Amino acid sequence: MAPEAPERERAVAFTLNGESVRCRAPVRTHLGDLLRDAFGLTGVHLGCEHGVCGACTVLVDGRAVRACLMLGVQADGTVVETVEGLTESGSIRDLQDAFHARNALQCGYCTPGMLVTAAELLAEGGVPERAAIRDAIAGNYCRCTGYHAIVDAIATTAEARHAAGRDAAE
Amino acid sequence: MKAPDFAYARPASLDEALALLAAHGEDAVPLAGGQSLVTALNMRLSAPGLLVDLNAIPGLAGVSEADGVVRIGAMTRHRDVGAAPVVRARLPLLAAALPHIAHPAIRNRGTIGGSVALADPATEWPACCLALGATVVVRGPEAERRIAAEEFFLGLYTTALEPGEIVTAVEIPLPPADAVWGFEELARRHGDYALAGLAATARRSGGGLTAVRLAFFGVGDRPVLARAAAAAIEAGDVQAAQAALADELDPPGDPAMRAATRLHLARVILGRVAGTLLAGASMAGASMAGDGDGA
Amino acid sequence: MSADASGLTFLDRPNSYIGRSVPRPNARRLLEGRGVYVDDVPAARLGHVAFLRSPHAHARLLSVETAEAKGMPGVLAVVTGAELAAICTPWVGVLGHFKGLRSAPQHALAIDRVTWVGEPFCAVVARSRAEAEDALAAIAVEFDPLPAVVDMETALDPGTPPIHAELGDNLAFERSLDVGDVDAAFRDAALVVEETFQFGRHTGVCLEPRAILADWAAADGLLTVHHSFQAPHMMQDILCKHLALPEGAVRVICKDVGGSFGIKVHIYPDEMATCALALMLKRPVKFVADRLESFQSDIHARDHRVTARMAFSAEGDILALDMDDLTGIGPYSVYPRTSAVEANQVVNLTGGPYRHRHYRARARVVLQNKAPTCQYRAVGHPIATMVAEGLVDLGASRLGLDPLAMRERNVIPDDAYPCAGVSGIKLEKLSHQAALAKLKAMMGYDALRAEQASLRAQGIHRGIGLAAFIEITNPSAAFYGVGGARISSQDGCTIRLDPQGGVVAAISVTEQGQGTEGIIAQIVATAVGVPMEKVRVISGDTQATPYGGGTWASRGAGIGGEAAWQAGKALRANVVAVAGAILQADPASLDLRDGAVVDAESGTERMPLSELGRIVYFRSDTLPPGVQPEFVATRHYVPKDYPFAFTNGVQASYVEVDVQTGFVRLLKHWCVEDCGTVLNPLLVDEQIRGGIVQGIGGALFEHCLYDAEGQLLNGSMADYLVPMAGEMPDIEVAHVVSPTTSSEIGAKGAGEAGTAGAPAAVVNAINDALRPLDARVSRQPVTPEVVLEALGLV
């Protein structure tokens, strides 16, 4: 194999919300911009672009990451899921329902990142304490709700999954 | 703000990465987890010519144990450091420090090697390395070097890494059976950088403590081993240890907090960690003191 | 709350949705990532603008060299202030009812002088934001730094140069009020307490940054503006004025807005410049503020220092209040609402819950070279509440009285209304006594005091803090219109019945997540008599809704809701009249319920609305002679009998202070408030909770820190500390209901109540915890360092 040559633009191929996708991207474009601009996934929200607000959180290979702190080209070979994909697969339908019923969102700008973060927490299984839920979402800024309703909605979902035996991690 | 223009390469081997760094000199920067570097790029605080992505290099991630030493590959994500069974069982200080590192999404991506190489003085891993007597393993174009943590952290974002070198692993000797430890961190909000933090290890010795290592973070331009304070703790005098910090720490004053306040906080957490260590020391037969985490 | 023709009141119509916790219909798309915020709006040939902003607090611009930048890849245009001024005229942020208020003309891009760090003075439009930023770096600028006025305490000193020479000094506005005989009251008082309160300048940090996309279609003569904003009609009017366009040539659309809180109701230079650039370049131009420039260019607020004293009788009666407020507002009064309002509110509101009759207040508003300040959620309220509630607690402690009993003793009694507050504000109906009683029961006040005492004995320092407050809501034209601002205080709703029985309601108040559209849907469904799922609500489009003020000053539900109620009733009357003609029944004997024409007496269905719609729209030939159906109704509403609908409430905070580290842990928070009719408890409670956490942000965390040269030191999300989930408490909310009789629905506002009272409750709780240690804090944010300083530990 020829040694890797530095490039300013690069081909990327990955699995995005269950579909194989490919494109060319400037290497300086972060994953958040790539998902928004190249694939129209505007559910990926940019709130700070320095990794603090959590609005752009997506799943890469099953783990929540800040899309603004990964280069788009680093998605090459990975599996990326955004709120659009999680919606389509139905995997967080119960969580979305709980957010809706509890009014655990207002302006909705933090919501996709909050859902992705909560989805990762819920995937660990069990019924986390309120304090543990607060810790898990402590990196996702919400200016509207004051967090209480979000904690309620995540707790409700965890309890329901546990009661239904759906919370086993492995 | 969007990142400035740069070039990017994703080498498939360490040798290839080292060759790229050598070819491009100081214009090239290794990209590990990117949780600090990409932030700096997005703020246009950094404008490297080339990013050398280490994420595709096999063998740089993972936690293993051999010959009484735990080896943590540089590209091991923070979360995987804390999740490793040997870390949970034998290096509980690291497991206790982990929840203080930012937030889940950052811990999923950030790496221990990146954190050690960046040497942000307010972060957890460098102080833990100091407290645990870790060795930082680095590879340069010529050879591998093994640098004791005490010799590695030289100043604000400054380490013993030479241009062209890459951190490949952190090696931590397994603590002896009579080891005790403590960890405290004060941050304004969960996951924020420390206003003052302390990672400590020691050995029980006849109801007291010996081999005390107090690694403070957030209170200097690098993680700081407070040796005089440690000696005072070994002598059983916590107040003297707190007093000694005035000479051992030179905390920064910044818009968020005055230097004197940071020093005060360092003394408070020293008192608390010392309590944990001493409580552990007086627990006959216990293999490990409580978590002393306070969180 | 009057009964309507069917004999049913607003609340008990058979298919009433009022008072029910109905989830917001429009929240689903947000949960699925399908919201459409400005940055999500597609546009062909889009230019992205980035602004060159001043690195100096005050400097003359000697030269701006743009030639190199113009040649950079992707660059479409580089425009300086002088070039842009040919298209966009300057503005001055003054209003007639703030007598003496002064400011200077402000341009969209500064021309020869920059006056704060972050003021834009040159724009680059490029094919991508990244390329625009690349080009910014290639612009060479020569500055001649000027002395910066940073400290508001010295802004008025004779030796301090005026920021705008033509004004002579840095005093923008001054208001004084002197009611009763304050000097005599203080002279005769058994106890006088005094305190200086400092409030840290902070800002809104909407998660969606400010954003605007303007597209000039020359062939249509139409400037279409997608804007993350609260008041589309106001923006339309102002764009027309400053871009010299007729009213019909500007359409402003505000789809999903990612938080606003008052941040997005002001005229910003960069946003005006973006619209002017679209005209200039004849193509769509988009500006999305990045987070770093948001901190420098969003309005700030709350930069106040208040020295105040309160006089008490020996029994604990508040006799008089005397206060002096100094506030720094940046280099310009912000257009068009002005930056005098916050100080004016402090004068109007301080001590508002109480029945003392002697009050003196002075507020001075000074110019300084920092980011401009203007109205942000709960304008002035947190300051007014902190000052009075801090002094009440100080008085209670000196007199050895319980703080809750002290408030019970001094609030204006619930049976005293209507009456006037000491500052002259007209109060229709408040419920301080009922709210205090409810709070006391809800929080288990006595048991909590007992727990506090027993923990104190163990060296655990917990504190309970209370804050009674009043809130201005439902403003009439008295707020802005009387001063000459073209800001509408009336709002309208148009409702149309479609053939299948669906209802479309267009409303001029707007949605930023608080649930406006949901509330309007509830009201329309109730008023017309259809299931809520049949109602579609349109908002945020100057071309599609009636004319109105939008969202500000907690007015959406109270004013927009009443307009929707009246329009719904009118449509129902129209529909029933036509149904009566078809069914040959007396319209008074018919009603609409759950989407059908029914017999009002028995509830028996006479005809589904889909059948009526079929006849009216497709078989009008079969209608009785002379019947012309009008299945559209529009009504407008503005409060007329009171200039504002004041609301009231009381909050409590329970905290634990670590007296070694100075860290404060928030254990629990309670709020009882009275916003009149509770249209949707689910939405109201979350407004309160969110508002409380925003207030806690200012009390404990948020602070725009400037150095002596006027540099903002912490303008990033990493350094400016917003409240996050890990530190926030659970919050209990309850209501007392005193509907306003100004409207039929009786709803008052609730959006700012949480923020109004939370800081005072938290700070009072901290001081309650510190009291045994003889320590006291009065400077916000109360950081660990502030607590440690109060304790004498650092």
Describe this structure as you would to a colleague.
The complex is a heterotrimer of chains A (170), B (295) and C (794). Chain A has 170 residues and is α+β, with helices and mostly antiparallel strands. Chain A folds into 2 domains: 78 residues, Ubiquitin-like (UB roll) (Roll), CATH 3.10.20; 74 residues, [2Fe-2S]-binding domain (DNA polymerase, domain 1). Chain A contains 6 helices and 5 strands. Chain A has a 5-stranded mixed β-sheet, sandwiched between helices. The radius of gyration of chain A is 17 Å and the shape is elongated. In chain B, helix 10 packs antiparallel against helix 11 and helix 11 packs antiparallel against helix 12. With 794 residues, chain C is α+β, with helices and mostly antiparallel strands. Chain C has 3 domains: 157 residues, Aldehyde oxidase/xanthine dehydrogenase, molybdopterin binding domain (Aldehyde Oxidoreductase, domain 4, 2-Layer Sandwich), CATH 3.30.365.10; 193 residues, Aldehyde Oxidoreductase, domain 3 (Alpha-Beta Complex); 328 residues, Aldehyde oxidase/xanthine dehydrogenase, molybdopterin binding domain (Aldehyde Oxidoreductase, domain 4), CATH 3.30.365.10. Chain C is 28% helix and 24% strand. Chain C is globular, with a radius of gyration of 28 Å. Chains in contact: A-B, A-C, B-C. Chains A and C meet through helix 2, helix 3, helix 4, helix 5 and helix 6 of A and helix 1 and helix 17 of C.
